[in-house]
Amino acid sequence: MKRLMYSGTGLLVLLLAFVAFNMASNVLLPGARLDLTEQKLFTISDGTREILTELEEPITLYFFFSDRASKDMVILRNYARRVEELLQEYERVADGKIKLQIIDPQPFSEAEDRAAEFGLQAIPLPQSGEQLYFGLAGTNPVAEREVIPFFSLEQEGLLEYELSRLITSLSQAEKPQIGLLSGLPMSGGTNPMTGQASAPWVALEQVRQLFSIQNLEHDMDQVPEDVDVLLLVHPKAMTETALNAVDQFVLRGGKLLAFIDPLAESDQSREAMMEGMADGKSSDLSPLLKNWGVDFNPERVVLDARLGMSVGRGEGQLPARHIGWLEVEPEQLNNEDTVTAPLSLVTVATAGALKQVEGAQTTFTPLLSSTANSALVASSAFSGMEDPEVLLDGFQADDQIYHFAARIQGPATSAYPGGLEGIEPGVQSADNINVMVVADTDLLTDRMWVQVQDFFGQRVPQPWADNGGLLINALDNLSGSEALISVRSRGNFSRPFTVVEDLQRAAERRYRASEQRLQRQLAETEQQLAQLQQGQDPTQMLEMTAEQEQAVQRFLDEKLQIRKQLRDVRFQLNADIERLGTWLKVINIALVPALLTLGVLIWWVVARIRRRRSV
């Protein structure tokens, strides 16, 4: 038997057995697979299973992929196979409620006409001149349509969410109604600073995919009855009548999601420009927040030296640490709330702080928080700021944890118990309100979480943070639909270089400490020079004494020495990163193959010893 195994016939038998095993597994276990990724990126989520198993009406999915036109595009074909396999898994889990049709739209065929009728994006191939289709269309029994025009490779991380979102939209008789009142140009328009047209914010475009939006006015006297969730974004121009309408909406059981801000950097209104860079850009919901047991100071911004973002300062300059723009990591996210638990990273810019009023009857549940290495500063500190690292000068953490977002629930009373002039008193109290407040509006802007690319006329968003997920999850939660929350932001296909980031932060701390020491020594030397000049004849002010010359020379020597230290720190940063890269190369190129070779040799030696003993 052993001779047979080592012979050519034995190898042929093993090859045939391997082929037979693969053929049998493809027939008997077509959907079987093993997901070894850390975050189970290729396993259908519980939220998707819930959506599929609760389908009441059948849905037809048409998957269009130009198989012949893409014969030389290996990467795209592999991605198309993964999309097709995931769609087949959807069909299997839905148990007859989803019918999948896979279509190859040949040129000048009825299938190509149908793809164009659905509005799918055709990509021209320059070499062959053919049109490449790679999209999905879905219909329900009442002839409603939802389309994914083109599956972009950059969007693979959101593939399951996009598919589940499409099916959810088709399965809903009516989309939840969102009443939107915004003081920011979320719908696009003309930028007053540049005079150029701007596109709608990606966050708003994503909301439109799942919800119906009613735009409300800042002087409304009541919230429409068909509004399920009221969304306020930078409501700085709301009249007292509108505040009373919001108060009554919440007390009647309406759900509220409010984004307020001590310094909305995206506020480019004329009023904000006339009042200054910081003044005039704040928004609040006073007196409603106080009445709901929440304290918010619209003139104070949170700084956090631990969560500060690294931002560019232009070509040829080192990045700066901006401790007013923060990366809120999983440790600072509430992992027990369904809105924030699935998220990995949320970025905020010049955000404010929310805290519970002492003795409040409502329940205050933090959702996004700072670290203890933080402090509050006046929003005016950002007026005319050119270098964000000036925020580090004299920064002293107060060991307090500040909350950027919170959920407020519990009993509440009206902020206008006597009504308003011309408006009769309304509901006076409620046993339980359902409100979510976020003390930042800039997190909704594209620059804080997503990069948008133009793909043959189609806007393709590539999110690098979960800000959009926070908004959608909150609206899903408040509108009563939570299945999509567990689907979104399930994982990231890219893994950050956390060790390199830690090295950069440590070196920047050393660099900043040295820079501050230089500034202190400069101030001390200037003070010493001023003391030496006291009592000197004014006619001889231009002449320097020997003591003054020694002090200046000592300062110049110290300055040169510290500059050398700063260069050494920056060099050491690069050296640490290069050393880490060298070790990774050694491990991947030499160590791993060496270990495998050693393992094979040990196996061969052990097998040889056993054969000798058996003889």
Q: What share of residues is helical?
A: 25-40%
Q: Output the CATH topology of the largest domain.
A: Rossmann fold
Secondary-structure-based class equals alpha+beta
How many H/I helices? 13
Strand content: 15-25%
> How would a crystallographer describe the biggest sheet?
7 strands, mixed
- In total, the number of domains comes to 4
> What would the average pLDDT be, to the nearest integer?
83
Task: Say how many strands there are.
Answer: 23
Rg computed from alpha carbons, rounded to a whole number of angstroms? 31 Å
Strand order of the largest sheet: 9-6-10-11-21-20-18
Based on the coordinates given, report the CATH architecture of the largest domain: 3-Layer(aba) Sandwich
Shape by Cα distribution? globular
Regions with pLDDT < 50 over 5+ consecutive residues?
Answer: 489-494
Please give the CATH class of the largest domain.
Answer: Alpha Beta
**What's the N-to-C terminus distance?**
16 Å
